[in-house]
Specification:
mainly alpha, Arc Repressor Mutant, subunit A, Penicillinase repressor fold, 2 domains, two-stranded antiparallel ribbon, 63% helix, 11% strand
Length: 110
């Protein structure tokens, strides 16, 4: 999805070539993942000459929001606090991020 959001549209080959610059990946794996994303409604494909061109159907923010919600539901039984505690204990949150979270919580509670 990141590659397609960056490019606005892309073929399987273009996504494959971009991903391959960073790590080894099989063309068929990229094709399978893009078909799954299309089945889930995150991508839409159309024909351009001899290849399918995929476009995102949702913004990055919408997709990330859905994925985080799904992850929290599956892993933390819907309790987002468990995720935050894990991130805080694992030192994944910077001081500024922790400060912003406190501020957001205070704004919500007002």
């Amino acid at each position: 999805m990141k590659v397609i959001w960056q490019r606005d549209k892309a073929t399987v080959r273009q996504v494959y070539e971009t991903l391959r610059e960073k790590r080894p990946v099989a063309y068929t794996t990229v094709m399978t993942m893009m078909n799954i994303l299309e089945d889930k409604g995150y991508l839409k494909k159309g024909r351009a000459e001899r290849a399918f061109v995929y476009k995102p159907t949702r913004s990055r923010q919408q997709v990330v929001g859905h994925m985080v919600k799904d992850f929290v539901d599956r892993v933390f039984d819907g309790a987002a606090g468990g995720l935050l505690v894990h991130l805080a204990r694992d030192n994944r949150l910077s001081k500024d991020e922790r400060k912003n979270i406190r501020r957001l919580i205070e704004e919500i509670e007002e």
